[in-house]
## 1
Amino acid sequence: MENKKTHKFNYNWTLKDAVFTKDKGKVFSCFACGGGSTMGYKLAGFDVLGCNEIDPKMIKAYKVNHNPKYAYLEPIQTFKLRKDLPKELYELDILDGSPPCSSFSMAGNREKDWGKDKVFREGQAMQVLDTLFFDFIDLANELQPKVVVAENVKGLLMGAAKSYVIEIYKAFDKAGYIVQHFLLDASKMGVPQRRERVFFIALRKDLCEQFIEQKDIFTFAPKIEMIFNETGITFGEVMENCEDDSREITTHYKDLWFKCEKGNSMASVNNGNGFNNLKLNEAEICPTIGSSNSIMMPNKPNYLGENHFSLCGTYPLDYIFKPNKQYIIGMSVPPVMTAQIADNIYNQWLSKIPLV
């Protein structure tokens, strides 16, 4: 079934039918996970050369679906120190990255975890998560791409975490970039999911002159707009566009499903327990898909199927998921969200920068 509304990028798509023009510039992706951002850049017409990722399962999924020219399985702390990187990576239009962000998430321990070594779900080396953003900026300092795009959670802009934003700005300045940040809502960008994320978008200083505007009496920044107001896509529309492969609930949550009102969590009928078990409402937009929260159909006591997750996450329906589809989608920037941002960067900046 065709989408009912017109959007710049289609959330219901397949890799086999996609046309990637690769004529808008070169991109390299860090913390690439299964390749959500990579697909977004491809949809917007960019040529994604490859990725850096620490998780062997994630990079395996990335390789299967993207066949990258370059793929580096190692921590960014060592990757940023490499002196054997190909010349192409020193000629990038965009360096992209989503540094792991659980230390700043409003759902986690936040301040209690800051500065501590943490390990990811798949068992990689211990890392201090809240310094990975600065390792990423170190890599930008080394490669000097025209533009740097870094994604993170909304919680980075809240409370004491704001001090990290100040340090991020300082680090970008030292690396030779003028940076701005934007809090964006995927549901206004053609994504059938309420997902707010902050994006830091930096332009190399030597390219800034023709784009500079005065933001306030103290701040000058390269002008770029990131305003999106596409019509929201309800879960009901997703259901109409989706082959139903939902799975029956077999736990005690099945009885709770009948008691729970649409749009609420099972905690509302289970003495406060089961907050991450959500019953959707077909008249509303799907809430944020996490890597492990249990999301249930609104019309029958079933868990969402893989097709539902793909459409809500704007992943192609024929994407090969290994290991777990929900985990990869929950950890990724929705491809259509990235495509919207990349399209703006190209139209407002990159297309106007003279070729050297």
## 2
Amino acid sequence: MININKTYRIIISGGGTGGHIYPALAIANSLNEYYENIRLLFVGAYGKMEMQKVPEAGYPIKGIWISGIHRKLSWKNIVFPLKLIFSLIQANRILSQYKPDLAIGVGGFASGPLLWMASKKRIPTLIQEQNSYAGITNKILARNADCICVAYEGMENYFPKHKIVITGNPVRKDIQYISESIQKGYDFFNFSNKKKTILIMGGSLGARTINQSVLHNIHKVIDNDLQLIWPIGKIYYDDYQQKIKDINYKNLRTFEFLKEIDLAYAIADVVISRAGALSISELSVAGKAVVFVPSPNVAEDHQTKNAQALVNKNAALMVKDSEAKDKMMDIALDLLDNPDQLKNLEKNIQKLAIPDATDRIVKQIESLLN
């Protein structure tokens, strides 16, 4: 336990997508739940979704001017060195003013400059790596980090082995108790508990292929009288609202972003999802039958590796992104017609869950604060 007579200041940095933001909020919520003497500050990147989502969750946040390097040739890469230098200056100013006892990086653009400067100032640092493949920023930061919390085995390929602690990925507590929210879920979406429900998950920004595949196969959903929850994503929402405006189907619910994802998990019979690390962790805790459509646009094709690991354990099904338009919805419909297979997938994916991941990370934070 930490000293209850002292006030500890902690900075949590990172974001860019829900896959980084929601683990950070889960950690913050647990710290606030356990301790009254901890003060939290988030640091994010200007223009990214954490600048909206973190204040909505009740936490203060400061922004820095940073973005990633574009993999394809782009004029935007020309200003990256300037952004990097400026963000390091901003990070140094924030650290000097806030004087944290610990800095936590959850991935995303802002975590790089903040944790780099924190380590230079001899402030203890902790990295929370969600993926099975570590990005270049975390690999650099790991050299000076004090603790690296990971969700997958084999991460010594990227990080110093003696710093690694397998904790799993933190998920929101409401997802751990979805069995208590089933009726609330049906009420929220105004759905019937007599009909089957499919949940689409393309990530917080959306997934082009999954959205295209849903639209291409929407007649199959209608013909089978299914209920469909479809968060389209910020990037594609306005375009798809135009494309579906003539589809008058009472059991279709579309969203730009679905904040109440726990209620969707509670009533979903089958989930169609990208294979990001946070999605896998949430689906495992929720115990949902899932058809993964891994994104091909990620480093080292790590989403396919993530999904294949579950397929090998008979804990999920997978469709290639290039085949999604023709196969994705049909596989989901076949699964709904095969209750034995569906139950088997639910049982096997739940075996992979680490529901106390947040508590494990909090223990590492306690250790560093002590």
## 3
Amino acid sequence: MLNKFLKSKLKKRLDENTLRRLRNLPALIDFTSNDYLGLGRSEDLFELIKKKTESLPHQNGATGSRLLSGNNPYTEEVEKKLAGIFSSEAALIFNSGYAANQGVLSSIPQKGDTILYDDLAHACIRDGARLSLASRFPFLHNDLNDLEARLKKAQGNIFIAVESIYSMDGDLCPLKELIELAEKYDATIILDEAHSTGIMGNGGAGFAASQGLEKKIPIRIYTFGKAMGVHGACVLGSQNLIDYLINFARTFIFTTAMAPHSIASIDCSFQYLSKHIELQKELKDRIRIFDTESGKIKIQKLSSKTQIQGVIVPGNENIKKIAEQLQQDGFDVRPILSPTVAKGSERLRICLHTFNTTEEITQLVQHLSKL
């Protein structure tokens, strides 16, 4: 019975041309990873992490959850450093951004409360909301009028879940206006800074901090597996918030803590960025080059001023063929298919990095113009 069910579901995906497979591509020019600042491939950061790890008590794993045997003074020290970097009272490390978002949204909103989330919010926000006993409703992407209409009908404590930079469209949240709206309706903003961590703000403190708005947002989530080049995440907020999550967030309570090496990687990554903050400017330069060059050709490009760029080519079969052609030409660009994005908005998701040269970006755009 199980195999019959599994085969039928996989066949349906295959028939729809949406079946996912793990792939190992040859060495291509990277326009697909989230390693925006190149820290994931930095040999200097690798050596820094190695040196720091060797200075710690020799221990391979955390050995248990933070509430059992997995806590230690160094992890708490790094959390204090993160609270300082992100201008917050306290911080709590989670194993991933997915776990952090899920933990926050599944544990804080209660029955009778309302969660309103952006229609393009990441799956972890949707999954966390679904695990909550609160009512949950999407609002049109970055549409504050639609959000306000839903705020007027919301009941109980109200939570608004949004992202700083949206992972598929690459556009920014209208944060200042959103904060004003949340204050009007006494709603709590939950801000996922996954794709802005590191690339914006002093010390890599993200989009809200770059706008001087971080103190206006009660719950912020930062991810380290993208621009910071390592792994893990943290939730920032009041000490009461952190104490609450320690007691009620199941993705924190019931999972093995991060290994000392992973904690050291987070610590060293921010230490490294603090001494190489010029990487933020270098990334902006790459974004400007792509924007200038792509403006010279006729493509249906999404409006984005960030490191995430999208070129729309409707149809799963069409976009897969174009991505395969680009890969054959030496560019690692991946197709984003429906249902990951809405049908008709299938796209190439192009990620820019500090290590992409002007020549590489120009060549990519030239190849796009021929497809």
